[in-house]
Design goal:
alpha+beta; 5-stranded mixed β-sheet; 5 helices; 5 strands; binds tetrahydrodeoxyuridine
């Protein structure tokens, strides 16, 4: 699948990787998200000497979009030099919460992309629905 909008978003994600702050891992990641508004928001990975405080590129991009008031995030793109890098587990959980319908697009190599829906990347997920059910059972 090589839809133009996916390829454009991968290019934006690649541009975002230029700002990567990854002096510990030396692994630059760029992300870009497309919203229903038509706007694109970018993010990159930002590492910290206290490693656990690192923010992945995907979450940086998502938080940028949400902070700007976006309600509907349709596509999340991820770019790395090596290619075929899919969002980590933490990012999958955050994507499911903030962009539950989203297609995820990653660069496979210089020519190809891979597209998969977040629901397929995180099956049997935990979500707000579980909390609602638990609260209802207590009432
Ligand atoms: N990283 C991302 O930004 N996104 C991913 O999908 C995988 C991992 C970052 C976190 C860290 O800065 C570096 O890559 C190595 O794990």
């Amino acid at each position: 699948m090589k839809e133009k909008k996916y390829i454009k978003l991968i290019e934006e994600a690649k541009a975002a990787a230029k700002n990567s702050r990854s002096k510990y891992s030396k692994f630059s990641v760029g992300s870009a998200v497309l919203c229903a508004s038509g706007k694109i928001y970018k993010g990159t990975n930002i590492e910290n000497a206290s490693y656990g405080l690192t923010n992945c590129a995907e979450r940086s991009a998502l938080f940028n979009a949400v902070s700007a008031g976006e309600k509907n995030i349709e596509i999340v793109a991820v770019w790395t030099k090596s290619g075929s890098v899919f969002p980590c587990g933490a990012c999958r959980q955050v994507i499911l919460e903030l962009a539950p319908q989203a297609d995820i697009v990653v660069n496979k190599n210089a020519k190809d992309i891979i597209v998969i829906n977040i629901k397929d990347l995180l099956p049997y997920s935990f979500s707000g629905k579980n909390l609602k059910r638990a609260i209802a059972n207590c009432e």
